[in-house]
Specification:
Shape: elongated
Strand order of the largest sheet: 2-3-1-4
InterPro entries: Diguanylate_Cyclase (IPR050469), GGDEF_dom (IPR000160), Nucleotide_cyclase (IPR029787), Rev_trsase/Diguanyl_cyclase (IPR043128)
Protein name: GGDEF domain-containing protein
Largest sheet: 4 strands, antiparallel
GO molecular function: diguanylate cyclase activity
Pfam families: GGDEF
Length: 104
C-alpha cells in the first residue's frame, strides 16, 4: 500500500550523562527502558520507534499530518516529564528535545 508522507522525529534525553553520573548506570538504564516504553505507548502499530544510539531515539511515523504530529509530540513531551523510571527516586525527572521532519 502506498505511503502518502511520513514524519521522522529524532529525540534526545536531556542531560542523560548527568543522570548516569548522579544516580548510576542502573538508573540510567531504567530511564532508557521507561523512555522507550513511553514512545511505544504513543505511536501506532505501523510506526517505528528505535534507539539511535546512547540516549538518542528515532520515530518513523507513517502518513502523519502536521497537526497530528504536533499533538503526538505534545503528548510525548508531557509523558516524558511525568514518567518516574525508578520508584524510589521520585525526584528524578526527565525531559527530551526533539527534531522533526515531515515529508508529504
Amino acid at each position: 500500500e502506498p505511503v502518502h508522507g511520513f514524519g521522522l522525529v529524532l529525540l534526545d534525553i536531556d542531560h542523560f550523562k548527568r543522570i548516569n553520573e548522579q544516580w548510576g548506570h542502573k538508573v540510567g538504564d531504567a530511564v532508557l527502558v521507561a523512555f522507550a516504553g513511553v514512545l511505544r505507548s504513543l505511536i501506532r502499530r505501523d510506526d517505528v520507534a528505535a534507539r539511535w544510539g546512547g540516549e538518542e531515539f528515532a520515530l518513523l511515523l507513517r502518513e502523519h499530518e502536521p497537526q497530528r504530529l504536533l499533538a503526538l509530540l505534545e503528548r510525548l513531551l508531557a509523558a516524558v516529564r511525568e514518567m518516574t523510571p525508578v520508584g524510589r527516586l521520585p525526584s528524578l525527572r526527565c525531559s527530551t528535545s526533539a527534531g522533526v521532519v515531515l515529508a508529504l
